[in-house]
Amino acid sequence: MIAISAFSSEPRGRPASTMRDAWQSSGTISITESAAVCLPGLGGGSQHVCHHPPSACYRALFSRILCLLLALLITVTSPATARSDDPPRQLTFDGRLKRDPVFVNQGREIIYAVQNGKPRLVLYRLRLSDGHTERLHPDSPLPEFRPVYSRDEATFAYLQMTGNDRLTVQVRRVGMPQPLIVKPTAAVIWHAALTPDGQNLLYASSGQLRIYPLSGGKERTLTQTEGRNNWPSVSPNGRQVVFGSSRLGNYDLFTLDLTQKTTRRLTTNASMDVRPNWSPDGTQIAFVSTRHRNYEIYLIGRDGNGLTRVTHNPERDDYPAWHPDGQHLVSVSQRDGQTDLFLHSLAPR
Amino acid sequence: MIEIGGFRTGCGGKITRRSLLRASFATPFTGLLQSPTLAGENNAKSVILLWLWGGPSHLDTFDPKPRAPVEIRGPFSPIATQTPGLQFTELLPLLASRSQRFSVVRTNTNLTNVHRVAGSIALTGSEGRNGDNDYAPNFGSVIQRVHPAAGELPPFVAVTPGKLRTAIGPLKGYGGGRWGNSYDPFPVQCSDRGEVHLPTLKLLEGLSLARLDDRRRLLRELDQLTRSGEQSRPEQWTAQHQKAFRLLASAAGRRAFDLSAEPARVRASYGRSQFGQSCLLARRLVETGVPYIQVNWSKWVENIYDGRTDFGWDTHWLNFEHLADRHAPILDRALSALLDDLAERGLLADTLVLAMGEFGRTPKISDNGGRDHWARCYSSLWAGGGIQPGRVVGSSDARGYDPVTGGIGPDRVGATLLERAGITSAQRAALNVLPNAQAIEGLV
What we know:
Chain A is mainly beta. Chain A has 2 domains: about 5-75, no CATH class; about 85-350, TolB, C-terminal domain (Neuraminidase), CATH 2.120.10. Chain A is built from 3 helices and 25 strands. Chain B contains 13 helices and 17 strands. The radius of gyration of chain B is 22 Å and the shape is globular.
C-alpha cells in the first residue's frame, strides 16, 4: 500500500489546522507497517513508536526494507492502473465549481481554476502539505484558467479572457518580467498546452490544433479535419500529441506523431472521450468519458490497449491530471453536489 | 442563511431598527394579505419558469440531429430517453433517464434573433408596441395581477443573480411592462452556497428578526422615531419594499428563504451551483404558495468575457466546450433534481415547470466553433401542472432549421402557461393579454 504521509500523520507538537484536521478525519489512505512510502512532495515521513525488543525490531525492519524494495521494483516496472479499493482523497473542501488542476513544484502544489469567484474564473494554488489555498494572481481582474507548465516549470502558460469569448495565452518564463502574450489570429483559442521543453505552445483554435514556437516563428496548423479537435496533451518525450477529435462523428481520442505527421485513433466509442492527459512515463493516457452515462475517468495505454476505469462515482469526475510520480491522479469531482479536488491512487498492475 | 440587503442573517438574525421602521411606514400592521385561490381543477397552483437566458442550442440538448452533416450535427452523440423515439444528446443523461416526468416541445419559434427583443417576447408572449419601451407584462405579472397575493410572500418572485441584461442594455420584458413596476417580480438572489440575498431592502444590522413579530413594540419604536425626527419619507417606499417587508414580517416567508433548513441530501441533489440552489429555493417557494417563480440561469446573456458576465447561454464561441464543461451538467442535475423533488413531495401535479430560452442556435456551426442566434426553431421542456408527460410535441426538420409541424410562437407558450395557472381566455381578453392566442395542443 502506498501511503500519503502528509495526509495521515501529524508531526507531534505541531497544532493541526482546521483544514488539516479535515483532511485527516475524512481520509482513508493510511500508513501501513509493512511498506510506508512517502509520496514525493506530499509532506514528511510517518512516525513510529516501537514497543518490540531490538532483535525483533531489526528483523521487522529488514523485512520491511525487502517489502519496500519489492514494491518499488513492481512500481517502476509496471504502468499504473486503477486501484479499486482505495476511495479518492478529498483535497479541497469549499465545494465550488473547479476545473483544470495541474501538479507543480514537484507535486507539492496544485494550480487550478475556480469558476465562481469574481472574476468568474480565478487561478488558485493549493499547497498539499497543509491544504492552504491562495490566489495565484491576486490582482488580476480578468478571468484566467487552463494553467499548463513545461517539464522544468520554467515556462508557464494560461488562458486569459480579454473580450467576449476572446482569449489570449499568457506565457510566463522564469526571468522574464513581462508575460509573452500570444494572440492567435484564428478566432477563439481553447485548451492550450506546452511541449515538455517549454519551447512550443499548442492550442485548439476554430476546431483545429495549432503549434506556436515561443521563440518566434510561424504558427503551424497540426490538424485540418472536419469536426472539432481539442485538448492537446504532449507526450513526455515531446514526439506525440494526444487529443480529442470529433472528425469521425463524436469525440474520440487520437494521437498525432509530430515527426511523422501520422494520426492514430485510440478509442472508438459512441460517447464522448475527452480531455486526454499523458502520464509522466508516457505509457498511459488518462481521459474522461461519458461511456457509462456519466463523466468518469479512465486510463488507456498509448497503443490504445488496456482500457481501465478509474472512477466509479454516480456524480461527475473530470479534468484528470497526473502527479509526477505517475501513481496518482488529481481530478475535479463532485460528491454530494459539491465540486472539489480529489486524489486517486493508482496501484501497480 | 438569508441575506437582506448587503448583510446576511439567519432566521433569528439581525435587521436594523431604522430600516424596519422605514418599512413600517408603508406597510400596515393590520394583517397580511390573504392567500389567493387559483381557480379550477387540474390547474397549476404554481409555475416555475427556468429561464435559460442566452438561448441554448436545441441541437446540442433536446433535439439532436445525428444524421446531419458534420458541420451541423456537432460532436455530441444522441442517447435514448425513457420516452420512445425521443433522444437527447449525451450531455443530458439525467434528464434522459426521467423523461417520463416531462414533455418536450421541439417547434418553438420566436419573432426575432435579437436577445433583448426576443427575450421580452418570450417572457411576455407578444411584441412591444413601441419598440423597447412598451412591452406587455411578463407572464408572472399577469398571474400576480389575477392572483394578487400568495399568503405572506410576493406572488411573483424572480430568483436571479441580477436584473436581466445584455451588453447592450437591460431586458424590458422582465416585469410589469406597461402595467408599471408594481407588477415587477420580487427579486431574490441565491448563491451557489444557498445564501439568499434580498436586494430590495438595504438594511443595516441591529434589529432581531424575531422582533418583527412584536408589532406593539414596533409601533412604540415607530412613535419614538417619529418624535425624534428620524422619520423617513414613506413615498420613497415602493410596492417592492412593501412586499419585502411583508416577507420579513412573516415567519413562514423567512423560513422559505432559508435553504439551510433543507437536508444536506436534498441540497446536494440539486448541485452546489447557483442555478441548482436557485431551483431548490424555487421548490421551497412553491411549498409556501408562491404562484409564479422565475429562476434565471444568469444575469447576463453573454457567456463570459470579463468579471461581470456570468456564463449565459449565448455561445457564439466555444459552444461545445461551454456546454460540455459547464452548462449542460449543471442544468441536467438541477432540473432533474427539481422534477424528482417536486414529484416525491406530491407537488409536481400542481406545479408547472417550464424550461426555455428566448431562442435556439443556428444549426450550422460557425467558424468560431459556436452557434449563433436561431429563432426559427428551438425546444422547450414542460412538466407538471396538468402537462401530459412523456410526449414530444412537434418535430423539426432533419437539420433543425425549421419546424415540419406547425411552429409554436411565444403567444401560445404564454397562453398555455397562463391557462395552466388557471387564467382563462376570458380573463386574458379582459386584461388584453394574448387575447387571441391558443394553448399548445398535445401538451395537456
